[in-house]
């Protein structure tokens, strides 16, 4: 009986492997002519649509970069806006090709959902925002407070863990949509609103009087945010992962959207490999050897994407911090394109 079960299990696994191999996401994307990305329903700086339906943000740039790598055209993408509760199901079902939504990598998500994180495009932490009129300067002063939080997130779990560790109580007000949660917070239904600090900065910047709100200093968690793909499709995983690394490597070597054509003449072997002047770095990824050149030319390096979506010249006014290059004291470290 054990032998029969073992044979049956092996057959199932073999069938799944054959299915995965025969249903390459990259092949499917090439066939339909665009990449379908899942993004948030609207978080300024990460993924948000204007009145004409044009999407922008650092997570949208991740999607555009994948399109540029595959097609040589960063415009060959479509966005599916997803709530926190919809995002994993949409990826699991194949409704989207990749989840480029501010999503935290955790061991549970990498081992129980059939999904896998491909890297970090924003290092964040969870925080809490209050109205300045509340008169508190620390989350430790929120004993008994009503806190707006989204369900089905690490945020909800971190919030409970932090308050328990402090020996204080809170009343969760669970609201699925971040915009609705913010409205509930500003209308007085909640004393505080918690999510990733970047999200709090985005929400605060969208208010008519941003200075009426403060983000308290405590960090409730570590939140490495980045794209996710389905397990069992290694070539798609590799393409998404190396798209981010190409943007990081470009910034480290001083290659940007403005000078990339001039950099084609560089005698630096690292730059030559990144830009496809030498070697065949695209061959293993099943894309053109100019894949990284196309990303940089059309989307920019990581620093350019950060600055135009989140940086000090935007309403969010976020400093690079942990998202600076490793040589500048941050955590961003591009893997070698070689």
TrEMBL record:
Q: Which InterPro entries match?
A: Bact_solute-bind_prot3 (IPR051455), Solute-binding_3/MltF_N (IPR001638)
**Leader peptide range in chain numbering:** 1-20
- What are the UniProt keywords, alphabetically? Signal, Transport
The Solute-binding protein family 3/N-terminal domain extends over: 34-263
Q: Does the keyword Signal apply?
A: yes
Family that this chain belongs to: Belongs to the bacterial solute-binding protein 3 family.
Q: Does the keyword Zinc apply?
A: no
- This protein's name: Amino acid ABC transporter substrate-binding protein
SMART domains on file: PBPb
């Amino acid at each position: 009986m054990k032998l029969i079960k073992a044979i049956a299990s092996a057959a199932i696994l073999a069938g799944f492997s054959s299915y995965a191999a025969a249903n390459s996401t990259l092949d499917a994307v090439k066939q339909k002519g665009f990449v379908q990305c899942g993004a948030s329903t609207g978080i300024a700086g990460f993924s948000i649509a204007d009145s004409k339906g044009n999407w922008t943000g650092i997570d949208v740039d991740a999607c555009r970069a994948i399109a540029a790598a595959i097609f040589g055209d960063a415009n060959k993408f479509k966005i599916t806006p997803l709530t926190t509760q919809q995002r994993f199901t949409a990826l699991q079902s194949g409704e989207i090709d990749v989840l480029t939504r501010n999503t935290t990598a955790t061991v549970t998500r990498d081992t129980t959902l059939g999904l896998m994180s491909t890297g970090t495009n924003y290092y964040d932490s969870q925080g809490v925002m209050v109205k300045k009129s509340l008169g508190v300067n620390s989350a430790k002063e929120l004993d008994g407070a009503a806190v707006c939080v989204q369900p089905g997130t690490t945020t909800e779990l971190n919030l409970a863990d932090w308050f328990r560790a402090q020996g204080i109580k809170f009343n969760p007000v669970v609201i699925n949509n971040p915009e609705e949660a913010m409205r509930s917070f500003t209308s007085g239904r909640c004393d505080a609103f918690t999510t990733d600090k970047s999200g709090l900065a985005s929400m605060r910047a969208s208010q008519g009087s941003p200075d009426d709100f403060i983000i308290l200093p405590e960090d409730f968690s570590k939140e490495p945010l980045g794209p996710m793909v389905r397990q069992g499709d290694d070539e798609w995983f590799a393409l998404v992962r190396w798209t981010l690394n190409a943007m990081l490597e470009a910034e480290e070597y001083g290659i940007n959207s403005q000078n990339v054509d001039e950099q084609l003449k560089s005698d630096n072997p690292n730059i030559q490999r990144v830009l496809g002047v030498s070697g065949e770095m695209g061959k293993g990824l099943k894309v053109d050897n100019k894949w990284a050149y196309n990303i940089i030319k059309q989307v920019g390096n990581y620093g350019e994407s950060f600055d135009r979506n989140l940086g000090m010249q935007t309403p969010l006014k976020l400093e690079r911090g942990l998202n600076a290059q490793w040589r500048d004291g941050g955590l961003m470290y591009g893997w070698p394109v070689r």
